Amino acid sequence: MKRFVAMLLVVAMVFSMAACGKKQETSAEQGKVFNIYAWNEEFKGFFEKYYTVPEGVTVNWIINPSDNGVYQQKLDEALLKQADAPADEKIDLFLAEADYIGKYVDSEYTMDISSFGFQNADTQYEYTVKAASDANGVCKGVSFQCCPAAVIYRKSIAKEVLGTDVPEEVQAKLDSWEKFDAVAADAKAKGYYMTASFAETFRAFSNNCTKPWVDENNNLQFDDQILAWIDQTDKYIENGYTLTAGVWDKEKTDQMFKDGKTMCFFGPAWYYNFCMTNAQDAENGCVGDWSIVKGPQAYFWGGTWLLAATGSDNTEMLKDIFETFTVNEDVCSKLVENENQYPNNTKVVEKYANDANYGNTSILDGQNDIAIFSELAKDIKWENHTNYDQLLNEGLQNKLQEFYNGSVDKDTAMKNFYNYVKETYANINVPEN
Amino acid sequence: MKETKRKKDGRQSVSYAKWGYIFIAPFFLVYFVFTLIPQFLTIYNSFFETYRDGLKQIGPNFVGLQNYITLFTPDADGIIRILKYASNTMIMWVAGALPQFVIALLLAIFFTSYRLNIKGQGFFKTVIYMPNLIMAAAFSMLFFTLFTRGGPIQMYLAETGAINQTFDFFSNRVTVRGMIALMNFLMWFGNTTIVLMAGIMGIDQSLFESATLDGANAVQVFFKVTMPLLMPIFVYCLITAMIGGIQMFDVPQVLTKGNGAPDELSRTLVMYLNGYLTNKNYGMAGAISVIIFIITGILGGIVYKMLSAQYKDPEQK
Amino acid sequence: MNKHMSQNTKGMIQLFILRFFAYAILIFLCILCLFFFYLMVVNSTRSNAQLARGFSLLPKEHFLENLVNAWNDASINIPRGMLNSLIIALSTAVLTTYFSALTAYGIHVYDFKFKKLAFTFIMAVMMIPAQVSALGFVQMMNKLHLNNSFIPLIIPGIAAPVVFFYMKQYMESVLPLEIIDAARVDGSNEFHTFNTIVLPILKPAIAVQMIFSFVSSWNNYFIPALLLDKAELKTVPIMIAQLRSADYSKFDMGKVYMFILLSILPVMITYIILSKSIIRGVTAGSVKG
Q1: Exposure check for chain C: N or C terminus, fewer CB within 10 A?
Q2: Do residues B104 and C239 lie in contact, with contact meaning Cβ atoms separated by under 8 Å?
Q3: C150 lies in the same domain as C202
């Protein structure tokens, strides 16, 4: 027993010493190590395929899963001590999602990309630039993708409810919320649901807000778009136009099977693969029974940005990377063809949108979805986002869901939401309740 | 090197005192280096306003007992949130711990009884411990797929008419708390069984034999011999289970997706704490920790004193 | 069995009913526990699309495919992760049990001035919720440049109040002080006494706590995830979380379930090996008397 303990101690010590030793070795010359923080390997794959790392530079990928907020937690720690870190351990580039990009953009830990000579091209979508810019309009990074989102509808159900499944005609009947609501009533009369989740339309509203979640005095405020969403959802639940499931719930995704009763889903291109596996099911799916239209309101959902970290000593390389994934048409075309991406380059997008031979058959009926998305992308706005959006949006949906599924009344639901805000953000003032 | 034959006079227990210090030194050394400082900071922080707004650090500003006052200020409906979460935690813990202890005690006796002579013990012991081997997150994932609306259990019960078609296990107070208690029970009853079993097996067998020879029946043996001798271990089980219960987190967090639905009735104290931690609000988080510590201390002390006193074992010391 | 044959029929019927109930309860609980394990196995045989479709009790044919996919996943190295987790969990288990027993022995057997204070202190810190100090701990380790090292995951195990408490209670119920006195008379050094006489008596307790600390260390996600970011140091739970936060082109729940299943196997083997010594400990214990 004792010998075993001793042996293990030695093993543990040798191992941890080896780990320490390695760390010291890495302190080489300046600018030879490029550190990238990410939460998964999506961008790493593109980077390795389409970007040539300069001779003599080592690229370190520091990948931390986003589960339990570990990614941001570690990134924050690293950024906060960035100033004191040795040059080769400083973060050069890190990835951020739309939901929390503001937290980093509005801080001193990201750097002006024009300081190292990168100019945003006008082929980049405006909202992607705006999202990466701070309050003074200083841009801190770029996105390699654009995430316009559409209404994805079941053709067979549309045919029955609207009498047509042709995208142009469907769009004409869904191009405002009033019309959308009217169609919802028709769908209900014919035994269908308009949407499959109470929160399905949330993004379409919330990403078009004209007021931020908090005013200049840090008071919580509800934008008209958010209020409109609540009104709509109240009505939809009351009339049975939608289900009480959340956006990620099984009850909702079950509606994408062949025997589903739901006409409309809301999502961008990544939604096909990530959320619509049931529609692509070999036995019970319904591939080809889908088309997309703009719907009542243009919006976006998700997206990944590359941000330049203050203190990076590899600015040349940062500039190169940004150019490769935004300006370089060759790379952007490959992103479309090989990776199913919607690139952040209008020129490349136009090329595919106007290509008569291009069509999506993996889930749609061969419709050129890029053509629709490209129209949509022009109308996307990035306005009035705050650092609090992600958790406030989630919180509002979660607390209201309890009202919609009947476990609390609306007053209580709102009180629970205010309480949630107070607990999450000590600096936000909530209405006295 | 050799310290032999120090027992020269009657003061032997005094002369060995230095060994006591030597033996407990590693524990205290490691504890001070690795754990005490962060724990001390927790208490210290509870008197400050300190949190992050994005990446910006706010504070620390000394606020005295303000964080504690905030915690115990009732909201407009007169509800003191922390007490609500404390009672949720208690209810769910008791609902899971009661069957956990009854079953574990029963199984421990089954396994150790020569008279019953249970076959296939290795198999049974392995199987009952298995739920504890699965990560809580993975276990909750499985549970969720079973009970979710449109899931097999909900569908089956709805078809047989036992529940309403639209009944949702995750929006009803009783079923949510029940599921959490059930999961905690499943995850921990095997663990408790093993601890109690090891405790019973450590008891000198001759005591059982002599009790039986004296004509005691099984029930008498249990209450007069097994239980008193098992009491230290039983107290251990109860206190650690209680600490675990008060710190209940993973299961309700994953199962209710961090919401504590419905109406915050399945939200536990540590879920409340975790809410503040996500925004690095160390002030409020510190205050909650101190409260949890006090609650645990009081309850733990009561249990320890009560049970230890009740079964003062005459044969010891 | 023969022993019971000589008893009267009433006793035999009683025993029969008792046995029947014992087995019934055991079998019921086992079915309940196995059911979840079975679900896990079934899920590991289903493809991502099949998993999205919902619940199923019947295994499908994707077991090998999931195994190959998980094993070959470019972002995670399963054998490496298993080895890392094994090193950490095993070292923690050994250190925790040995030093907790040592500390408990120090307080149980010896009389010294601060004995009561030391005991009260450990009992008090046991009740401090672990969650808050966790983040402070991580920050401190970062400052000491101990991130990306196994030290902060292993060494703190030496000071485990809960395990100490168990050892103390166990000694209270099974460790007769006369044995130690006897050893002293025989000229045994105190350390020697602890290692050769006391530890064997504590074997069931040590086995129990080794299992528990091994399992909790093996399944620990939060602290290791915050400390380790070098790919070659990552542990199994971090890798599972990484699979779960994979981007949509690589997202595959079949792979996740397969890895969860794989990750249970080493813990189960450890458990089966150690649970044997809980039983063996009894024989060792009874010999002493």
Answers
A1: N
A2: no
A3: yes
pLDDT tens, C117-166?
Answer: 999 999 888 888 887 778 788 888 888 889 899 999 999 999 999 999 99
In chain B, what residues touch C219 (CB-CB under 8 Å)?
133, 135-136
pTM of this structure: 0.87
CB contact, 8 Å: A423 with chain B?
A: yes
Please indicate whether, in this complex, the C-beta atoms of C140 and B37 are within 8 angstroms of each other.
yes
Say whether C242 and A20 touch across the interface (CB within 8 A).
no
Interface membership of A20 toward C (CB under 8 Å): yes
Fold that domain A27-146+302-353 belongs to in CATH: D-Maltodextrin-Binding Protein; domain 2 (3.40.190)
Taking the domains of chain B in order of start, what are their residue ranges?
77-310
Phi, psi (degrees; rounded to nearest 5) at B257: 50, 40
Q: Which of B58-72, B142-156, C40-54 has the highest mean pLDDT?
A: B58-72
Which stretches does DSSP call E strand in C155-283? none
Q: How far is C232 from chain B (nearest CA, A)?
A: 22
Q: Is A109 on the interface with B (CB under 8 A)?
A: yes
Cβ pair A407:B49 closer than 8 A: no
Question: Does C83 share its domain with C62?
Answer: no
> How many CB pairs (< 8 A) connect A and C?
110
Q: Do C103 and C76 fall into the same domain? A: yes
Nearest to C36 among B13, B30, B131 (CB): B131
Nearest by CB to residue C246, choosing from A5, A40, A81, is A40
- Interface confidence (ipTM) of the complex: 0.85
Q: What does residue A90 show for φ and ψ, rounded to 5 degrees?
A: -70, 145
Q: B148 to chain A nearest CA, in Å? A: 8
Predicted confidence (pLDDT) per residue in A141-156, tens digit: 999 999 999 999 999 9
Helix axes A315-326, A329-339, angle to 10 degrees: 60
Q: Measured between CB atoms, does B113 come within 8 Å of chain A?
A: no
For residues C172 and B94, give the distance between their C-alpha atoms in angstroms, rounded to a whole number. 27
| Residue indicated by tokens 């409260």 | B291
Q: How confident is the model at residue A16 (pLDDT cuts 50, 70, 90)?
A: very low
Q: What is B77-310's CATH topology?
A: MetI-like fold (1.10.3720)
**CATH of region A148-299+359-424, choose from 2.40.160.20, 3.40.720.10, 3.40.190.10, 1.10.10.10:** 3.40.190.10
- Contact (Cβ atoms closer than 8 angstroms) between residue A289 and residue A365: yes
| Chains in contact with C via at least 3 Cβ–Cβ pairs below 8 Å | A, B
Confidence of residue C241 (pLDDT cuts 50, 70, 90): confident
Q: Are residues C109 and C189 in the same domain?
A: yes
CA distance B50 to chain A (A): 10
Buried b (16+ CB within 10 A) or exposed e, C28-43: ebbebbeebbebbbbb
**Do C22 and C144 share a domain, yes or no?**
no
For residue C280, give the CATH number of its domain.
Answer: 1.10.3720.10
**Nearest CB to A427: which of B58, B148, B262?**
B58
How much is the average pLDDT of A54-83? 88
Kindly indicate the confidence band of residue C279, based on its pLDDT and cuts at 50, 70 and 90.
low
Q: How many domains does chain C have?
A: 2
CA A96 from centre of chain = 9
CB of B241 less than 8 A from some CB of C:
no
Domain of residue C129: give its range. Answer: 68-288
d(CA B70, CA B88): 20
Kindly list the residues from chain A whose CB atom is less than 8 angstroms away from the CB atom of residue C98. Answer: 1, 5
Minimal CA–CA distance to B111: which of B202, B196, B224, B8? B196
**Mean local confidence (pLDDT), C100-118:** 92
Contact with chain C for residue A35, Cβ under 8 A: no
Neighboring chain A residues of C150 at a CB cutoff of 8 Å: 12, 15-16, 19
Same domain, C36 and C163: no
